[in-house]
């Protein structure tokens, strides 16, 4: 009976506890849902991983890119922005070229110097002293040079002048006396006295001019004042240069050659020089067309001087400016002529060009190039027939990373 009472009490307690346990499990399941707690919680995605998994933006899709093989992918819109231009290569027989160092010089027949013939003090001319860049004409008075003498020289000149004055007075009286006795004296005697008198007058005028008269400095040729070393009141010694005049439309070029045979093998010549402003403005190298005048037959500093005349109207160059002379010989070689802007120099000194192989693909080629003239370069190795070489914007392609 007692055992039955204990069993009955246990059953009552289970009936009360079991609903409470079921309610607690239901709430716990509702709070956690269907989450799987057997795995660790995933970390939130970082900004870099999200950007890596994101699709390329419109800007990246239209930007120039360097591919793994070194070539460039350049979309059409970027090609238009960079103003890329290409040229179809064509093989031809081109002349061999030789580059020489040269300099601009004035034509001796169209230039001149104004020097002091004696020591003197400079005085301004009728229109003042000429300035740099001023155009003058042949025979124009540029300035006056008043002679200066030491006290000893001036004393000697005044002594000579006093002696001439005394002789002139005697000769004048002699002439008057002979004229009064002209009927009694031979005619030759009277004329000789008169001639002596006139000679003494001219001698006196010459000595006086040497003491006070100024010397006019005259322009020997027409042109532009390129050198002006004159200041009013400045004292110059004899043979000092006061002015130099050149004609900018008549210039010459002197180059030094180390092969005497070159004087008989010149077909054409061009002069070029570096000009950052010209290259930045129109991407062209300034040049001068030259005509060969002749070469010396005597070595000077282990080289033979070659003289060229600038053909046509010259550009903005200065006398004494260092230039590069490109001589085309009569010998020919096979190559491809491209503009100067097509070839780029690498840091190692190698020459390269960009070839347009596909619609949006550019490949860099190492080439062997020689200057052909002031505007073109001859490529003798590294290109093939009918390839499109970039002629404008090649330097911009080299900056694509």
TrEMBL record:
The record's listing under InterPro entries reads: CzcB_C, MFP_Cation_Efflux
Q: Report if keyword Signal is assigned.
A: yes
SUPFAM superfamilies registered for this protein in UniProt: HlyD-like secretion proteins
The residues the entry assigns to the signal sequence are 1-29
Provide ranges: composition bias, Low complexity. 43-54
Q: Where is this region: Disordered?
A: 32-54
Pfam families for this protein: CzcB_C
- Gene3D superfamilies attached here? 2.40.420.20, 2.40.50.100, Helix hairpin bin (1.10.287.470)
Residue intervals of the CzcB-like C-terminal circularly permuted SH3-like domain: 338-394
Name the UniProt key words of this record, in alphabetical order. Answer: Signal, Transport
**Matches recorded under PANTHER family:** CATION EFFLUX SYSTEM PROTEIN CUSB (PTHR30097), SLR6042 PROTEIN (PTHR30097:SF4)
Name recorded for this polypeptide: Efflux RND transporter periplasmic adaptor subunit
Native species of this protein? Undibacterium amnicola
């Amino acid at each position: 009976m007692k055992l039955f009472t204990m069993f009955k009490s246990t059953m009552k307690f289970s009936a009360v506890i079991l609903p409470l346990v079921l309610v607690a499990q239901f709430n716990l399941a509702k709070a956690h849902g269907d989450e799987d707690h057997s795995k660790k919680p995933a970390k939130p995605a970082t900004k870099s991983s999200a950007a890596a998994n994101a699709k390329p933006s419109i800007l990246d899709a239209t930007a120039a890119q360097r591919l793994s093989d070194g070539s460039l992918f350049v979309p059409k819109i970027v090609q238009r922005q960079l103003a890329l231009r290409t040229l179809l290569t064509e093989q031809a027989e081109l002349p061999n070229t030789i580059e020489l160092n040269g300099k601009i010089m004035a034509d001796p027949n169209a230039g001149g110097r104004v020097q002091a013939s004696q020591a003197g003090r400079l005085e301004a001319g009728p229109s003042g002293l000429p300035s740099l860049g001023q155009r003058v004409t042949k025979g124009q008075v540029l300035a006056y040079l008043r002679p200066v003498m030491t006290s000893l020289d001036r004393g000697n000149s005044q002594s000579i002048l006093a002696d001439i004055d005394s002789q002139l007075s005697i000769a004048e009286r002699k002439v008057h006396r002979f004229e009064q006795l002209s009927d009694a004296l031979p005619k030759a005697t009277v004329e000789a006295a008169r001639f002596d008198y006139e000679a003494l007058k001219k001698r006196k005028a010459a000595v006086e001019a040497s003491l006070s008269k100024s010397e006019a400095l005259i322009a020997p040729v027409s042109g532009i004042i390129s050198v002006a070393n004159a200041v009013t009141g400045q004292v110059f010694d004899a043979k000092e240069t006061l002015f130099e005049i050149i004609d900018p439309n008549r210039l010459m070029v002197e180059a030094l050659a180390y092969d005497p045979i070159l004087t008989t093998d010149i077909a054409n010549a061009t002069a070029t020089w570096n000009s950052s402003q010209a290259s930045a403005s129109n991407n062209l190298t300034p040049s001068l067309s030259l005509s060969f005048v002749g070469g010396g037959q005597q070595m000077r500093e282990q080289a033979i001087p070659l003289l060229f005349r600038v053909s046509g109207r010259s550009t903005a160059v200065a006398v004494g400016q260092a230039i590069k002379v490109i001589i085309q010989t009569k010998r020919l070689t096979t190559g491809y002529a491209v503009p100067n802007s097509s070839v780029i120099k690498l840091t190692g000194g190698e020459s390269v060009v960009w070839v347009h192989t596909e619609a949006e693909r550019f490949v860099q080629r190492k080439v062997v190039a020689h200057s052909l003239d002031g505007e073109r370069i001859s490529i003798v190795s590294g290109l093939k027939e009918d390839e499109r070489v970039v002629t404008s914007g090649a330097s911009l392609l080299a900056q694509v990373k």
